[in-house]
Design brief:
This protein has about 210 residues and is mostly helical. About 65% of the residues lie in helices and about 10% in strands.
């Protein structure tokens, strides 16, 4: 496989273009180490070492770094790795590793996205934003419908507990009201569901 071009990206890295259309970035020291030059034939064993040993490992480490602070979708990770000039083989290997070990999980991403933004955006807006991030329409629909079902079950549980407490919201102090919020939060209910049901009970009592 012939090397067509080697283009210097910056003071540290260069991009190697092969005749099969593949390209990847290496440190200038690595280009020198492998004695890569334009027009030369890249031996298969050297190609295997660069792509499968060196760059797959580097792409995997980059993938983990990108996920260090916030969850990202498969599409977002793939775009970041491609922008980092990793070869497609290394990118797909890193993606597979991430999905196998659940570092990348589009369903989990969608669940968290809908949980945190579901009260602020319509279903159409949620699905549009998720699909822009590469989440399939099927996952968007399934996760949204499940979240709605779980939300209704949660609200029903909060209502039963409020009825059991027999609180008259027209008579309690703000401090007592905060204690009610704290009680439900400790039980693991979402703030949005608590707020919705407390407001309903409060409107009945006033």
């Amino acid at each position: 496989m012939k090397i067509l071009h080697i283009v210097e990206l910056d003071k540290k890295k260069g991009k190697v273009h092969l005749e099969n259309g593949e390209a990847f970035a290496l440190y200038l020291g690595e280009i020198k180490k492998y004695q890569l030059k334009e027009g030369m034939e890249l031996e298969e064993d050297v190609y295997q070492e660069i792509v499968y040993d060196l760059l797959e490992k580097r792409a995997r480490e980059r993938m983990l770094y990108l996920l260090r602070d916030t969850d990202k979708t498969e599409k977002q990770i793939r775009e970041k790795l491609m922008a980092g000039n990793y070869p497609k083989t290394a990118v797909e290997a890193a993606i597979l590793f991430g999905k196998t070990h659940h570092y990348i999980d589009d369903r989990r991403y969608a669940e968290e996205f809908i949980r945190t933004r579901g009260s602020k955006l319509s279903r159409k807006e949620l699905e549009y934003k998720l699909m822009q991030k590469g989440i399939s329409k099927e996952i968007c629909q399934e996760v949204y419908e499940l979240a709605q079902e779980e939300g209704l079950q949660e609200e029903a549980a909060i209502e039963r507990l409020l009825q059991k407490k027999n609180v008259n919201f027209s008579e309690i102090t703000p401090e007592e009201k905060q204690k009610i919020y704290a009680y439900f939060m400790r039980k693991g209910f979402s703030y949005d569901s608590i707020l919705k049901k407390v407001n309903e009970f409060e409107s009945r009592d006033t």
